[in-house]
From TrEMBL:
Listed name of the protein: PDZ domain-containing protein
A GO molecular-function annotation: amyloid-beta binding
PANTHER family reported for this sequence: AMYLOID-BETA A4 PRECURSOR PROTEIN-BINDING FAMILY A MEMBER 1, SYNTENIN RELATED
Organism: Falco tinnunculus (Common kestrel)
Repeat found in the keyword field: yes
Domain of life, per lineage: Eukaryota
Keywords, in A-Z order: Phosphoprotein, Repeat, Transport
Length: 184
């Protein structure tokens, strides 16, 4: 974990968008999903998209609901300096599922490329699959523009080592311009 200080004008927002890290992540906290161009966070060069925010000005954000974290950050508008404790995390999570043969259930369900449920103790959970993440790649093949049925087909027939890349769905929607970022 690293500690960073971001300087800003009093009354100026930090200029970040935060999303939940996704159920199944090591620490349930928020991650930076987007930064406002020219905003204090981006200008500082000290934080990156994907970073997990553990605490801000000494207040822990671990385990708090997204709306509470957003309120805490909004409440810092009149501060000239903000102290963040962050854990560097690439925005994309790499998952490795080991499936000896087709008799083994993958142990997760997908809806429109988004992982919506996970079987406790299953091979997917052991491989690092997270609920609320969007699958962006399976075995080196991008599935960003792939229809739901095809993603299900690829997964249901995959055996051996299944490599997947995923990212939080809220971050995916921002990056693919399906959602307008709301900076705080």
């Amino acid at each position: 974990m690293i500690q960073v200080y971001i300087e800003k004008q009093k009354g100026e927002i930090l200029g970040i968008v935060i999303v939940e890290s996704g159920w199944g992540s090591i620490l349930p906290t928020v991650i930076i999903a987007n930064m406002m161009h020219g905003g204090p966070a981006e200008k500082s060069g000290k934080v990156n998209i994907g970073d997990q925010i553990m605490s801000i000005n000494g207040t822990s954000l671990v385990g708090l609901p997204l709306s509470t974290c957003q309120s805490i950050i909004k409440g810092l508008k009149n501060q000239a300096q903000v102290k963040l404790n962050v854990v560097r995390c690439p925005p994309v999570t790499t998952v490795l599922i080991r499936r000896p043969d087709l008799r083994y259930q993958l142990g997760f369900s997908v809806q429109n490329g988004i992982i919506c449920s996970l079987m406790r103790g299953g091979i997917a959970e052991r491989g690092g699959v997270r609920v609320g993440h969007r699958i962006i790649e399976i075995n080196g093949q991008s599935v960003v523009a792939t229809p739901h049925e095809k993603i299900v087909h690829i997964l249901s027939n995959a055996v051996g080592e299944i490599h997947m890349k995923t990212m939080p769905a809220a971050m995916y929607r921002l990056l693919t311009a399906q959602e307008q970022p709301v900076y705080i």
